[in-house]
Amino acid sequence: MAVLNLRPLLGGRLVRGSQPFGMDAAATAEFLAAHGIRTVVDLRSVRERDLLPWQLAQGNGVELLESPFDTAPHGLPPVVGTAEELGELYLGWVRTGPAWVAASLRPAAHGTAFVHCSLGKDRTGVISALALLAAGTDPEAVVADYTATTAALPQLLTVMAQTWSVAVPALPPQAFSPEHMLLQSPEGAIRHFLAGFGREFGDAAGYLRDAGLSAAELDALRGPAA
Q: What CATH superfamily classification does 7-218 receive?
């Protein structure tokens, strides 16, 4: 199959998308070469990675960086009922995980990086939003990037349900229902996140400096890929 929900940001320096669905070593090499990707930043938990591991050939010059953020550390997904609660969930991640954010973005300062989680929606969305803000992108463009995932969700959720049903046969059919707010990408969620982030942290560049990115790395995020 392929990487879904795929789009380049920051002039191609940062590429965002889903996990690799059904890609063998040849398809993986073709995908990485097509986008000039030097580093794959995998935000998934160990369990998620074991389900769909990357098929990276040795010696291809592409680094795999595992930068996990487990959104269900106790085995149960968070309870989210509204768009605002989803945005608040994202705020909780940046409050507790500045080192994770910095580590996930650093590769994009040194070459083209592909950042992904499972759907390429939530963890990837937070990292992408902060990268765009740090580069001086208009917040409305950040909103547009986040909500662009909505069009990809029907295919994403179908493929995710198929993938997980093989690994967990007892998984109920409604587990990947598009009615779950946690599986949506509503405008209200990213607007709540952006407003809260601004109140708590000010600007994204300052947040990332405090998290460990250097001035040179922040400058690099604002320029084209080398």
A: Protein tyrosine phosphatase superfamily (3.90.190.10)
Cα-based angle 13, 15, 17 (whole degrees, multiple of 5): 170
Strand order in the sheet with 39-42: 7-9, 14-17, 113-116, 39-42, 63-66
Q: What is the pLDDT of residues 165-212, one digit of tens each?
A: 888 888 887 889 999 999 999 999 999 999 999 999 999 999 999 999
Alpha helices in the chain (DSSP H): 25-34, 46-51, 83-96, 98-105, 123-134, 139-147, 153-167, 187-201, 204-211, 215-221
Residue 68: both structure tokens together: 């996990």
Does the predicted TM-score (pTM) go above 0.70? yes
Q: Coil, helix or strand for 160?
A: helix
3-state class (DSSP) for residue 17: strand
Q: Which residues pair with 14 in a beta bridge?
A: 9, 113
Q: Where are the domains of the chain?
A: 7-218
Residue 40 in 3-state DSSP?
Answer: strand
